[in-house]
Write a structure and sequence with these properties.
10 helices; mainly alpha; elongated; about 200 residues
């Protein structure tokens, strides 16, 4: 039985390169040609290793969450709700203002302008953002139960607030706001978070 030729490229590096293209251009704004050029592979190799464009995009989302946005989950381990929010926002600012990354948040940028043909992508991004918000809500509910937040706090509203500020910061970064400006916004927003 023939084994076939081994891959002659680093799949993780190729996936990172695809992620950057999707992050910069969005799902619909990215062509297969742009992907193959950025990844340094040909079209058959792309399809053999990653499937079609949509399958590659899903793998890029997973890679983003695992490697670039890992602070989202690690922030939930902070000892207080305020520390969770502070780490979440500072991690976001670090990620979106890092000159090695495209501007803005991949979870926001990549699906903002999806048309009907990419409705499944838009829904997937909404689902991913909702999952992050739900995890945050659960952490804030725990903070209320532990007395870290006032008993009359609404975890769902607070999670929505924190997420909205996060996405707003990402949009500002995509528009050219620098790290200092983004930190000032996060500091001001943190003043409205309950103790």
């Amino acid at each position: 039985m023939s084994v076939g030729r081994p891959r002659e490229f680093d799949t993780n590096q190729a996936l990172d390169d695809a992620l950057d293209v999707f992050w910069r251009n969005g799902y619909e704004g990215t062509s297969i040609l742009e992907l193959t050029e950025a990844m340094g592979i040909n079209r058959p190799s792309l399809y053999a290793a990653f499937g079609n464009k949509e399958a590659l995009f899903h793998k890029a989302i997973d890679r983003y969450m695992e490697i670039r946005a890992c602070h989202l989950l690690s922030a939930l381990d902070e000892p207080t709700a305020r520390a969770v929010v502070k780490k979440l926002w500072s991690g976001n600012i670090e990620l979106i203002s890092n000159s090695k990354n495209p501007r803005g948040c991949f979870l926001v940028q990549s699906a903002l302008a999806c048309g009907d043909a990419a409705e499944s992508i838009r829904k997937e991004m909404v689902k991913r953002r909702s999952k992050c918000e739900k995890l945050l809500c659960q952490r804030l509910e725990r903070a209320i139960e532990e007395g870290d937040l006032p008993a009359d706090s609404n975890a769902q509203q607070l999670a929505k607030y924190v997420s909205t500020v996060s996405y707003g910061i990402a949009v500002q970064a995509a528009g050219g706001a620098g790290r200092k400006q983004l930190c000032e916004v996060a500091d001001l927003a943190l003043q409205a978070f309950p103790d």
